[in-house]
Amino acid sequence: MARPHTGSDLRLGAVLARAAAYTSHAVTYESDGLTISGIMNIPEGEGPFPALVLAHGYIDPAVYTTGRGLAREQDLLAREGYVVLHTDSRNHAGSDDDPDNDVNLRLGYTEDVIGAALALRDSGRPEIDGDRIGLLGRSMGGGVVYNTLVVAPGLFDAAVVFAPVSSRPAENIDHFQRPDGDPVVAEIEAAHGTPASNPAFWREISPLTYVDRVTEPLLIHHGTADTTCPLVWSERTTADFEAAGKDVRLIKYSGEGHTFGPQWPTSMRRTLAFFDEHLR
Fold first, then answer.
1. 84, β-bridge pairs
2. Alpha-carbon distance 12 to 137, whole Å?
3. Does some domain include residue 250?
4. How far apart (Å, rounded) are the C-alpha atoms in residues 144 and 164?
5. How confident is the model at residue 92 (pLDDT cuts 50, 70, 90)?
6. Does residue 23 contact residue 49 with C-beta atoms inside 8 Å?
7. What is the CATH number of the domain that holds 213?
8. Mind listing the pLDDT tens digit for each residue in 6-33?
9. Which of 105, 71, 101 is nearest to 86 (CA)?
10. DSSP 8-state assignment for residue 96
């Protein structure tokens, strides 16, 4: 929040696929001095089209491949007339490495999403309407969305999250990393202290501390049977947004798990209606 962020030099590379409704390109862009890779779907027809930035969930960087994690969303949203930029977070696929990212609670992923929006705005490409940009994230990417809304209010026009992680970083560490004996936990606590020894840091690293800064409407999708990211996390986040007077809506999907199966089409119809309302 305290420092400026940059995003520029959006470059289209090889054509990865051609569909009747869109063409998929490999892309790179600059984000705070790093080169970030990704995939961008550009609709057929006359633009400019509104754009969406997609932030993927956690996939081990050792097995992650470019554009992985939100393939069905990339396809559907491009078919509906959106330029879709799916970012490969730093340390993933063809993106540059940031060796301090994990110790710094992966805040670099937030920088890369901000950089993506700035690169879209700066691209000068006739297909892209840089004044109409939305943000979508799932799971870990949902946490990236929360961070982005408080770090760069006004950069996006609307945001959607699916099955997001907790908006309290210490809770994510306790849920995902500590039980598995992740050695990064010790590095994080050596650098920043524990919630008990340095409560100020852990309070200031949560986007909920700054929810008053949020200006964008937010839509949250969460299944009641999600055992990866408990529904209560989204309920608490929604309550904090509502208490701050923010435009937030939580939709619960009875019996739906973390990855969204039978009710995914319904959730996407609602997502499209939401983006159409705020970006068209």
1. 41, 52
2. 22
3. yes
4. 9
5. very high
6. no
7. 3.40.50.1820
8. 999 999 999 999 999 999 999 999 999 9
9. 71
10. P
